[in-house]
Amino acid sequence: MARRRKVYEGKAKILYEGPEPGTLVQYFKDDATAFNNQKKGIITGKGVLNNRISEYIMLRLAEIGIPTHFVRRLNMREQLIREVEIIPVEVIVRNIAAGSMSKRLGIPEGTPLPRSIVEYCYKSDDLGDPLVSEEHIAAFGWASPPELDDMMALALRINDVLFGLFAGVGIRLVDFKIEFGRLYEDEDVRTVLADEISPDSCRLWDMRSNEKLDKDRFRRDLGGVAEAYQEVARRLGILPEGGPNDLKGPAVMQ
Ligand code: TMP
Hints:
Bound molecules: thymidine-5'-phosphate
CATH class of the largest domain: Alpha Beta
Number of strands: 13
CATH topology of the largest domain: D-amino Acid Aminotransferase, Chain A, domain 1
């Protein structure tokens, strides 16, 4: 296989130059990190599952008119995406108190919130992605006011869709993090959903048992991490063709 140019390597994914201008290949690794890279590990098969799960979710969102960077899945670990300029703001939507919100505000994990709450973090590994307000985003020009409006509106629509989608398979969508990018088309710039949506970036609890089916299993050393991701894929009806054993297949299939 011809060597491709690596454009960017993050903690869980690698971006390569795509086959046509304006496209990239997004490769999903098995690497997991938490607490801003202080904790590191490998979750065997995670990349394969997240590639599938994120594909499935991006397609469901596109069906209802949410613009995304996703073009198509290429193989077990790779998907073709449109090249965007990532807006350096992480958007978090919360339905139930958990994680940093529980800690910050002293609300016990599992407490339903009176309404969905949107938070923003400034995307900076050096600073540990600090929580910021719309004022910071506007004042420092990380996103323009119309982009911020787009991000907030899209985030709430995405929450509505995902909340229903997961509820349908017995999973509570506690919270999630998404990222947006600027898609340059001719003279136009559009705000589109980018990155991934997977158990790495969501909190997903089994509705009956409240068992965690997401990256908190890794963050909190609960064990059964890969099994939890598999369970999410299974419930969504998208386990890789060969079942769980397929997960250890070749990293790149062309
Ligand atoms: P938090 O409660 O730790 O702030 O996390 C909120 C949501 O965002 C949770 O679903 C996990 C996700 N998240 C990421 O995807 N990446 C991150 O770096 C962090 C801190 C959280």
